[in-house]
């Protein structure tokens, strides 16, 4: 398939490529912090193809150099309509730094994984340069960095409260969330002759205007003003109280327009679009992508992020989990937009025809793999819902949690004669496969799905994310009790044994999360040890904009209750919490003994430091993760802080 393409099949990135298409000028120029991969999973390419479908002449400037004479920003000239700017598929600070604020050695969205091609705060940096060089040309910012920084937000890397990104970037308009719908409306209005300065009532956009200027009228919208940026700077609790409004309005079917004063201006955030229909999302994925990196990178090396998704299929968007540490619903929304089976199978066929395809799809899924085709049973109930999660603290009675469409989709994909195996590499919500938790779906259907996944779509290991074992921490995370992980493991072990699969169950956990205390980490270590796990790769909590957990991390208050919450913030606290994961390392054992003696938890000392039971699996050193035993040992640990007993 690669050999069939010519240079003009990609959107142009240089004047030479414009001439190949006989273009003298451009309508839109996109600046991106990522290398250019012409694939639906890469936002700049997807939006470029949408603009192209409207007959516009579109070019992409990937990873422009900001350390020279800035010629990359001028080389393609002045666009007729606007510049579009994005940091790429990730927030540039998450891309550039670890949770410990150390600069990463690799950038997955750059050829050969090289770092240094994406500046810190890339969206604002690119936009300011363009506004300085082309002050009369509109600049639209979008993508995840712009989306999650659209209001006053805490920036972990500078340890400061920053205003909305429009203020920092000097951009004219911000598109938040997945950008297809607002972008289509922007283009439609501009082509009708509507001036850019009049684009004030497009859903899912934000802009700044003078505080003495009248707001554009829309009879269908209600307004909600939140605390000003200056008020947030003065009081952390005031800042925290804003987030409840922001999260609820962003996840409503019919949200209110949000207003926030910043200096002498007002930030205006228009409500979200309705969830994309099947026809709309199919149209986005059916655009003429080459599915390949631009040929300019051939001599520079592979792009790691592309290699990871090269043979994968995205089936849906959105996530109704609402986890307090996760940004998916803040960007993609909590309502699921699913592709049709026809569109998915068409893409599978396209992938199967790629010249280096060996018959294995690396992933078929979405943000949470097992949410495909799930939605409210009665739409009017969803229309009036303000809950940030559809499954926390319990699964909503109105949510259709049938796993049958997914089982049928997997089976349809595997009928393609060119597909040897299709893997589910995306995260699976294991709790939705536990009948005691998911009472909306027949137990047999849930087990059938689990068996289908374990038997046909897993390569040796199934990764799931219970995240913690402490009920108070899990409640704040909007995750279910760890008891359901025990129940899921029973099903896993039963199928594993019956089908002789010899699979490993890999649980992921987070340390240093708000509300997690040292004793909770000791309980987590003891409970997972008792189940037969040795944890070798764990995630430290990283505060990213637009999450409940980040608001708590900065302010110390839960935005929904405005009650204080414990936050492990010091380097010492974080290192100590992390250390409990590695109870089996000799260098940690004296520290564990002394630490637990101080809090009177001799029971945990015995559980953590006693010799391991014979027959338990050793950790998989090659992969760097823990594996489970087949026996499914039960654990009974009492947490003194909560009085809760988990079995």
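^ Assign residues to that structure.
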């Amino acid at each position: 398939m690669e050999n069939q393409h010519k240079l003009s099949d990609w959107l142009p990135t240089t004047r030479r490529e414009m001439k190949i298409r006989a273009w003298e000028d451009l309508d839109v120029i996109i600046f991106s912090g990522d290398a250019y991969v012409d694939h639906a999973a890469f936002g700049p390419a997807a939006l470029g193809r949408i603009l192209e479908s409207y007959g516009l002449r579109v070019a992409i400037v990937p990873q422009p150099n900001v350390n020279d004479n800035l010629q990359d920003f001028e080389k393609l000239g002045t666009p007729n309509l606007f510049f579009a700017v994005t940091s790429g598929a990730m927030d540039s600070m998450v891309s550039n730094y670890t949770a410990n604020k150390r600069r990463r050695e690799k950038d997955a969205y750059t050829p050969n994984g090289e770092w240094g091609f994406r500046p810190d705060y890339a969206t604002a940096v690119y936009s300011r340069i363009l506004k300085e060089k082309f002050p009369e040309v509109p600049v639209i910012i979008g993508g995840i960095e712009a989306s999650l920084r659209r209001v006053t937000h805490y920036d972990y890397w500078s340890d400061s409260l920053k205003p909305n990104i429009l203020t920092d970037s000097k951009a004219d308009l911000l598109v938040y969330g997945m950008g297809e719908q607002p972008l289509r409306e922007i283009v439609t209005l501009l082509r009708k002759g509507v001036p850019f300065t009049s684009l004030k009532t497009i859903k899912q956009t934000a802009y700044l205007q003078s505080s003495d200027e009248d707001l554009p009228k829309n009879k269908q919208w209600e307004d909600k003003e939140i605390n000003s940026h200056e008020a947030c700077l003065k009081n952390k609790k005031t800042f925290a109280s804003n987030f409840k409004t922001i999260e609820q309005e962003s996840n409503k079917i019919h949200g209110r327009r949000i207003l926030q004063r910043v200096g002498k201006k007002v930030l205006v955030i228009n409500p979200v679009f309705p969830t994309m229909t099947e026809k709309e999302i199919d149209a986005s994925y059916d655009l003429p992508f080459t599915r390949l990196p631009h040929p300019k990178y051939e001599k520079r090396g592979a792009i790691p992020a592309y290699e990871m998704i090269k043979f994968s299929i995205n089936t849906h968007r959105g996530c109704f989990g609402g986890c307090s540490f996760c940004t998916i619903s803040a960007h993609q929304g909590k309502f699921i937009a699913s592709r049709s089976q026809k569109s998915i199978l068409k893409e599978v066929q396209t992938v199967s025809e790629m010249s280096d395809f060996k018959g294995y799809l690396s992933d078929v899924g979405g943000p949470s793999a097992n949410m495909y085709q799930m939605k409210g049973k009665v739409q009017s109930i969803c229309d009036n819902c303000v809950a940030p999660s559809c499954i926390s603290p319990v699964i909503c009675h109105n949510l259709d949690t049938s796993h049958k469409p997914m089982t049928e989709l997997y089976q349809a994909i595997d009928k393609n004669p060119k597909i040897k195996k299709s893997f589910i590499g995306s995260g699976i919500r294991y709790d939705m496969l536990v009948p005691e938790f998911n009472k909306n779906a027949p137990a047999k259907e849930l087990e059938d799905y689990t068996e289908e996944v374990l038997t046909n779509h897993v390569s040796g290991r199934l990764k799931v994310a219970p995240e913690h074992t402490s009920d108070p921490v899990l409640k704040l995370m909007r995750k279910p009790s760890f008891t359901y992980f025990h129940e899921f493991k029973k099903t896993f072990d039963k199928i594993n044994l019956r089908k002789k699969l010899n699979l490993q169950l890999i649980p992921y956990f987070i340390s240093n999360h708000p509300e997690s205390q040292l004793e909770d980490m000791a309980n987590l270590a003891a409970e997972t040890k008792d189940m037969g796990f040795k944890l070798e790769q764990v995630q430290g909590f990283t505060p990213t904009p637009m999450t409940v957990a980040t608001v708590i991390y900065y302010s110390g208050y839960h935005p929904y209750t405005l009650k204080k919450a414990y936050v492990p913030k010091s380097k010492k606290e974080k290192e100590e919490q992390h250390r409990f994961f590695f109870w089996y390392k000799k260098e940690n054992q004296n520290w564990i003994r002394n630490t637990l003696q101080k809090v009177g938890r001799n029971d945990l000392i015995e559980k953590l430091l006693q010799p391991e039971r014979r027959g338990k699996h050793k950790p998989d050193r090659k992969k760097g993760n823990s594996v489970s035993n087949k026996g499914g040992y039960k654990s009974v640990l009492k947490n003194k802080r909560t009085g809760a007993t988990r079995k």
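Residues 615-647 have pLDDT under 50 and may be disordered.
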